[in-house]
């Protein structure tokens, strides 16, 4: 990891308009949690539904998409990445640093709000908060690896990421059993199900399948991003 690149990336991410979405999405989740608690509708099943549908189903992938593509795609599009590529820094170090910055952003704006939301609604009952935080963490890491790999591969990374997150995971993976196996959301739910005692959390993919796939995707995504940066010409983007 390169501290200078990390600082520049953090400054760029938190200084852009997209940073508003980083704050807005978790704020909505926390607000909903408070409303449910105040109105007396924060039972375990309702809390689980909110965390699964909005937390893991919308907040996490969208935040990871913003972070995973935002840390590198704009620099590739406007050519600024070439400034880094001319420096005596190994290109895998550049991609890995960008990936770690994205993960930190997802933890700050995704994992922590999901944990706090669960605590607001049910405290530490049934290990719900711990389970969803763990699921969000591993899922967020995998999402970041996937989206940063797509970002260095295509100029249409955001569109491709939205198709995966919204069409594949929230439509196809709900009805096609084969698609569920290739869903990061389902892998995250599997980890959540392994930790929490809440009966409403039901994973469609076993942990014996989900955990290895999470590891493989994360490693493959980061390695591919580093390899792809090696192929970029310092005179222009491909």
What structural class do the secondary elements suggest?
Answer: mainly alpha
Question: What overall form do the CA principal axes indicate?
Answer: globular
**From N to C, what is the helix and strand string?**
HHHHHHHHHHH
Q: What's the count of strands?
A: 0
Number of domains: 1
Average pLDDT, to the nearest integer? 88
Helix content: over 70%
Summed up, the helix count is: 11
Q: Which stretches are poorly predicted, pLDDT < 50 over at least 5 residues? A: 234-238
Radius of gyration: 18 Å
Describe the main β-sheet briefly: none
Roughly how many Å apart are the termini? 25 Å
Work out the strand percent: under 5%
Written overview of the protein:
The chain contains eleven helices and no strands. It has 238 residues and is mostly helical. The model is unreliable at 234-238 (pLDDT under 50). α2 runs antiparallel to α3, α3 (44-70) runs parallel beside α7 and α6 packs antiparallel against α11 (207-231). The chain has helices at residues 3-15, 19-38, 44-70, 73-78, 81-85, 91-122, 128-153, 157-175, 177-180, 184-195, 207-231. It has one domain (3-231). The protein is globular.
Précis, in short:
This protein has 238 residues and is mainly α.
Topology:
Layout: H1 3-15, H2 19-38, H3 44-70, H4 73-78, H5 81-85, H6 91-122, H7 128-153, H8 157-175, H9 177-180, H10 184-195, H11 207-231
């Amino acid at each position: 990891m390169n501290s200078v690149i990390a600082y520049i990336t953090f400054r760029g991410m938190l200084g852009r308009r997209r940073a508003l979405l980083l704050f807005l999405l978790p704020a909505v989740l926390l607000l909903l949690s408070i409303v449910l608690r105040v109105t007396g509708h924060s039972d375990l099943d309702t809390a689980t539904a909110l965390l699964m549908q909005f937390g893991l189903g919308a907040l996490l992938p969208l935040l990871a998409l913003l972070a995973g593509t935002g840390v590198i795609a704009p620099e590739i599009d406007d050519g600024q990445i070439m400034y880094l590529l001319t420096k005596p820094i190994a290109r895998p170090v550049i991609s890995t640093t960008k990936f770690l910055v994205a993960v930190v952003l997802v933890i700050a704006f995704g994992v922590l709000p999901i944990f706090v939301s669960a605590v607001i609604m049910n405290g530490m009952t049934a290990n719900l908060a711990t389970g969803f935080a763990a699921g969000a963490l591993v899922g967020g890491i995998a999402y970041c690896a996937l989206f940063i790999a797509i970002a260095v591969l295509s100029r249409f990374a955001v569109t491709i990421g939205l198709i995966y997150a919204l069409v594949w995971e929230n439509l196809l993976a709900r009805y096609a059993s084969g698609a569920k196996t290739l869903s990061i959301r389902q892998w995250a739910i599997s980890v959540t199900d392994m930790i929490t005692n809440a009966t409403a959390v039901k994973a469609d993919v076993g942990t014996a399948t989900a955990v290895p796939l999470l590891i493989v995707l994360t490693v493959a995504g980061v390695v591919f991003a580093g390899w792809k940066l090696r192929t970029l010409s310092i005179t222009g983007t491909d």
